[in-house]
Amino acid sequence: MFSKLVLSLLLVGSSAFVQRALPAARVRNARVAPSMAAQIDLTGKVAFIAGVADSTGYGWAICKALANAGATITVGTWPPVLGIFEKSLSTGKFDEDMILDDGSTMKIAKIYPLDAVYDTFADVPEATRTNKRYAGLTGYSISEVAKAVEADYGKIDILIHSLANGPEVTKPLLETSRAGYLAASSASAYSFVSLVSNFAPIMNEGGACASLTYIASEKVIPGYGGGMSSAKAQLESDTRVLAWEAGRKHKVRVNTISAGPLKSRAASAIGKEVGKKTFIEYAIDYSFANAPLQRDLESDNVGSTALFLCSPMAAAITGVTMYVDNGLHAMGLAVDSKAMQMD
Hints:
By secondary structure, the chain is α/β, with parallel strands linked by helices. It has one domain (4-23, 33-326): Rossmann fold (3-Layer(aba) Sandwich). The protein has helices spanning 58-68, 79-90, 126-129, 142-153, 178-199, 228-250, 265-268, 279-290, 299-309, and strands at 46-50, 72-77, 108-113, 156-161, 203-213, 253-259, 321-324.
């Protein structure tokens, strides 16, 4: 089951996020992600974004980017936090974060309860069905949500996988249990396979699927444990295979975005100890010090990339891992290392 602590880990989105105080010599970017809405028109297109539960991560930023281009936005939210998310929307907590480029307010056409570790209702254990956090909710398995979306909209055009979970993410791989490792793989990688499998049949030809990954899939990132690095590597491999299979069978494209670190609410909770920086704070500082582009990554940067990949402008792009990390993936040395300092 997803844990609230790491529902989204590093990769669930928003265009507005609370950033910690930066060193004096470091200035936060002015708005550097130009709107692509003027160049891309998604009017009449329907998008389903799985894994949105607040306004502090990449999933929210993708919603806004697609909405700016005119797409109809629907989302899937983890059942235990569904009520909180809906209340926050209705009470205006996210009002400022919902302002689009033209001054209008983003509309979320429908919110579906979604627990992406279950493919069918038969997979849901009795303990979950009767859990008070799932009280009154039905139809939250992936296949059920796909059928509900089909009943409401017929066909959709865009599918976004913006969720991940590693219940043992703070543990080194050597200390990760089999159950924790498989849970990370199930929630963070196979969930994308299942989403594409169930949603591709109801997608229009030329539609696009995208997920969010992280550089730990190919480089060692101490502190990002619990099998999450393995799950992200699996996700990227699956992206290539799904691009082939879904491309041939359903004529849709499948890509993934390797996003740099963002201080979302969920990511801020990983490895949090009193008096010490969190894992995500270390990751952000490291990226700023060592990436080719010495700037702070904005969630809008990932939102704009997802918009591009899901638009006709990327009609010939599929099976790729697109890096949106200020170029950090290209580096082989940490230039701020003491070993690099001259005597």
